């Protein structure tokens, strides 16, 4: 079980990911844009963040860059459509451990969150 923050502007994605992640035992919070997500992440209460690459107000890379400057190293999973290799490289440098295509089965998100949560626990040990 992990505390997961999902930052995405798609209500459908937030709903389907919540159902799948909660069913797997995770505690899930949501933000619909980058600015709200950054505020929630600043609390440091999350073990994994799932974040859209393209978001209203502040995009995923901007949010991650900002929280990394604040010393928050929460593992991140990025969601996008056709994310380029250069963008993947940039995201990786910002602590993204996995980049997933937006339109996948919820089980793919759950598996990615479980992998990231294990990394988060290993870091804390």
Task: Please summarize what this structure is.
The protein has 125 residues and is α/β, with parallel strands linked by helices. It has five helices and five strands, in the order E-H-E-H-E-H-E-H-E-H.
Mind explaining what this structure looks like?
This protein is of the alpha/beta class and 125 residues long. The protein has a single domain, classed as Response regulator (Rossmann fold). The chain has 5 helices and 5 strands; from the N terminus they run E-H-E-H-E-H-E-H-E-H. It has helices spanning 11-23, 34-41, 60-69, 85-93, 106-124, and strands spanning 3-7, 27-31, 48-52, 76-80, 96-101. A 5-stranded parallel beta sheet has the order 2-1-3-4-5, with helices on both faces. The chain starts with a strand and ends with a helix.
Note the beta-strand portion.
15-25%
| Number of structural units classed as domains | 1
Which CATH first-tier class would you pick? Alpha Beta
Number of strands: 5
Q: What class do helices, strands and sheet pairing give? A: alpha/beta
Low-pLDDT windows of residues:
none
N-to-C SSE string, H for helix and E for strand: EHEHEHEHEH
Looking at the overall shape, the CATH architecture is 3-Layer(aba) Sandwich
Query: What's the Cα radius of gyration?
Result: 13 Å
Mean pLDDT: 90
Largest sheet: 5 strands, parallel
Molecular shape: globular
- Treating each run of at least 4 consecutive H or I residues as one helix, how many helices? 5
- Give the N-terminus to C-terminus distance in angstroms: 16 Å
Strand order in space, largest sheet: 2-1-3-4-5
Q: What do we call the CATH topology?
A: Rossmann fold
Helix content range: 40-55%
Instruction: Say which CATH homologous superfamily is assigned.
Output: Response regulator
